[in-house]
Amino acid sequence: xxxxxxxxxxxxxxxxxxxxxxxxxxxxxxxxxxxxxxxxxxxxxxxxxxxxxxxxxxxxxxxxxxxxxxxxxxxxxxxxxxxxxxxxxxxxxxxxxxxxxxxxxxxxxxxxxxxxxxxxxxxxxxxxxxxxxxxxxxxxxxxxxxxxxxxxxxxxxxxxxxxxxxxxxxxxxxxxxxxxxxxxxxxxxxxxxxxxxxxxxxxxxxxxxxxxxxxxxxxxxxxxxxxxxxxxxxxxxxxxxxxxxxxxxxxxxxxxxxxxxxxxxxxxxxxxxxxxxxxxxxxxxxxxxxxxxxxxxxxxxxxxxxxxxxxxxxxxxxxxxxxxxxxxxxxxxxxx
Length: 336
What we know:
Blueprint: E1 20-25, E2 29-34, H1 50-53, E3 63-68, E4 80-85, E5 89-94, E6 106-107, E7 119-125, E8 129-135, E9 139-144, E10 150-151, E11 159-160, E12 170-177, H2 183-191, H3 207-215, E13 219-224, E14 228-233, E15 247-248, H4 253-256, E16 259-265, E17 270-275, E18 280-284, E19 298-299, E20 301-302, E21 309-315, E22 330-331
């Protein structure tokens, strides 16, 4: 995407033309458009100002989060919408609260007067899902989504999801599907996980249970501003009570730089990174081995001096093959 000098790409998502998209603004308002109403362009297109698409935006109001919705509105009753803020607050509402949105938008969330809090993520949540919050300084917390009661108000500030220290802030909201394991099963599985390579001994889990846990295993990809990152098993992210300080998500923030994103991904996926110099890199995750939750990670992307990764997006495997021998490390002048 071409940009003006003062502009950078910060977000990207994959959807279809028939899906509705909700636009959540810094003022806590929500707007809705169908994807086919968005301008279509090529790789060098700059696009159109969002105010041309959403003319009801106020002068100092900008879009913070976009959320593509399922095309079938009959499925909306089964879903909740969960909000997360930079200061660690979360809130859950029924999807029905956002079924009808006027052309000039409506309030989705309010913040306390004088607060510098802001909305950092909005996601769809099923009853059996967990919420994962990741912070800029390398912490993460996982808790059951139904620990956050369903609010009827769209203007509440919500409840505490994560307790933050110092100037840390939440930067990512993700949804994980619950597998239904015990802590002992998770520890045993991780000890003998297939991504560990050859191991001595055999797991105490039955063959059927081991196969089930392998089939339902999820992975968390964490990306940092200096181009480092890692892929870890979600089984290492134990579920705790809402409102705690969390656990280590990635180590060595001093070398890695602050965390930019942390979300579910797999080795079959690809990763799209965008830098603050408007460079873009697409790389496969197949060569990125799974490592421990508290490890420091590896280099994903060679950033230039004074250049930082500002956005990371998972691209689901489309079945196409990449170039033979292609490694996951690349520079900012190459698009894979």
